[in-house]
Amino acid sequence: MLGPKRKRSDFNAEVEAHLALEADRLKEQSMTDEEARMAARRAFGNVTRAQERFYESGRWVGWDHLVQDIRFGLRLLRKNPGFTAVAVITLALGIGANSAIFSVVDSFLLRPLPVADPGQITIFDRPQKEGFALPLFSIPDYRDLRDQTTKVFSGMFSYLTRFDGLSVNGKAERIRTYYVSGNFFSTLGIKPATGRFILPSEGETPGADPVMVLSYTYWKGRFGGDPEIVGTKVSVDGHPVTIVGVAPEGFYGINLLSAPQAYLPLGMAVYGGQAADFITNRAARFVFVGARLQPGESLQRAQAVLDGVARRLSQQYSDTDKDFTVKVYPELRARPIPQAGSLVVVLSGLFLGLTTIVLVLACVNVANMFLVRSTAREREMVTRAALGAPRSRLVRQLLMESVLLAIAGGVAGILFGSWMRIPIVRGRTLTEADDEKSQYVAIVNETMVKRFWPNQDPVGRQFTMSRESNHPMQVVGVARNSRFLGVVPSWPIDAYFYVPYAQHYETNSLETVQVRTAGPPELMIPEVEGVVASLAPDLPVFDAQTMTEALNTLVGLLIFEIGAVLAGAFGILGLTLAIIGVYAVISYALGQRTQEIGIRMAFGANSQDVLLMILGEGFVIVGAGLTIGLAGAVSAARVVRNFVTVSATDPLTYLAVSATLAVVSLLAGYVPARRATKVDPMVALRYE
């Protein structure tokens, strides 16, 4: 049993030799050659079955059957490309929507800070009597809270965020900056990638300690990860500053939506626009406050201690801190800001719920498609079973087809939900080596290639931009055409090219000035920009825009617009899946009723009668679905009514949506119904 396995050819030769010996023996008993061979085979038994037993004894049969099932499943899927494409696309839509939304929720709400023991990090809020809250504190209040809560907090930090102008070697640009207390990094428990952090003693005096810590991403992108960057002199808003270190990789500050590019001592904020007395003025509330719980301390005990400190401060400084209260939140519950945490959680849960419904619809639709397909394969299954295929083998092969479709749909869904990374079809992509010291490079899209280098290899070609004519850019790759300004297929895709940000800081540099004008505001933009340039040539000017344009941002109405677009997209997705589902269900039902339809037509029913009957039954299904859907929509309206400016139970909206769904669903059922009316009655009567 443990010896080497014989070859199949050796076994076959042995069988043939045995049959030949037996035939010779029988011929000696006066049988003819043909009679002897037939008798020898009858005496030996089923030769094919013996060969199969030998085959099974020498192989891992389960693995071999698995490979066969995979090959057979792939062959069937290739044989039915329409079915395969629809099933894969249906699963891709459901899985892609879920992976995309979950990736966003995970990044912004679920993933903990990359710091030591992130569950101990808390964020403070300042509730107001009017019902809202402001997460901003004065530095004197922060210091009192820090010094009087050491029993429950092992450390407390403060910071403020703003944009500043950074000048390196005469090149000015805008950067997002964190002005942090000296214990910011030590409280978080992180270590620098290189150099050092801001010290606890730094930042206590306004304007003192002009040092800077770079974020890891900014260090790699702007300075190419130069390890000699520590000690470099730069200018921030016209004041000299020394770079002393780099934050660790993966640390993006406290709020991912406002990830900083640099960190400065809190006292340096006077050079960034803060009043000279902001460190001592208890009424100047500009800083965010966070803290780390002592090991073993609970959030409830910390809140009780904070309540006591807040009452004392409210009595001691009644002119500035009257009714002063503090609320502490776990850091994960305070994203992006504490008072918005519950709203963000509800909205995230709502969108995750929508994507889950879409995924369930996708799975149900694919299941219905398999049911429809099973009617066409019923005769095949019966035949295979009659030829000896065991039920378990048939079930395993059907399951393998489902697994193959699930894998294909999952891969397509992940690609669909991966924020549309643009593939490079020729050449290479951009790398960190493409910095301001290297050859200026670019990746162009296919449209640009056709326009400027038709029938030529664009890689290696050079071109310039008018604003940077002294820096020719060499084409290093070609990207597949992608849409940026619309998704309508009939719209042309314009020529685009992509460049490394590190090579164009001087033309991509970024405090806000608001100007009111009696005339069209857009006509004032060039004049304002000219005035700023004449006053401060090194000051970066950015985002000159009208108020309407400014509102279409994350700090304006953009987040609501994104929500509306996502909700609309999920609605269209659900409608698409509903169409597929209705089509599959009606097709399956009609496949089961082919003989009935034939009998009706044989007894005089015409095509129109059959069509109206099927559509009527389809309307009952659609009506039942709409009734259940409307009930669910009214219930869900109670959740979203605080997030919309129109009535969440607007009857016109419900009527319009219901009518649209009804018409579209009935149209989806019309195709199989129309096909059923073309059935030949005689053929249908013989249908089994």
Structure description:
The structure is a single chain. This protein has 21 helices and 17 strands. By secondary structure, the chain is α+β, with helices and mostly antiparallel strands. The chain has helices at 8-27, 33-44, 47-57, 61-79, 81-110, 139-147, 184-188, 216-223, 299-316, 318-321, 341-376, 378-386, 391-416, 446-452, 525-535, 547-551, 558-592, 594-602, 607-640, 651-676, 681-685; strands at 121-127, 133-134, 137-138, 153-168, 171-180, 194-195, 211-214, 233-236, 239-246, 262-265, 285-293, 327-330, 424-427, 441-445, 462-463, 473-479, 497-498. The model is unreliable at 485-490 (pLDDT under 50). It is 49% helix and 13% strand. Among the domains are: 8-59; 136-336, no CATH class; 424-506, no CATH class; 593-685, no CATH class. It has a six-stranded mixed beta barrel. Strands 13, 14, 15, 16 and 17 form a five-stranded mixed β-sheet that branches.
Counting helices, strands and paired strands, the structural category is alpha+beta
The total count of helices amounts to 21
- What's the N-to-C terminus distance? 50 Å
**In what order do the strands lie side by side in the largest sheet?**
4-5-10-7-9-8
Mean pLDDT level: 81
Please outline the major beta sheet: 6 strands, mixed, barrel
Strand content range: 5-15%
Tally the beta strands.
Answer: 17
Q: Roughly how many Å is the radius of gyration?
A: 36 Å
Low-confidence stretches: 485-490
Helix content: 40-55%
Approximate shape: elongated
Would you kindly provide a brief summary of this structure?
Among the domains are: 8-59; 136-336, no CATH class; 424-506, no CATH class; 593-685, no CATH class. The strands form 2 sheets. It has a 6-stranded mixed beta barrel with strand order 4-5-10-7-9-8.
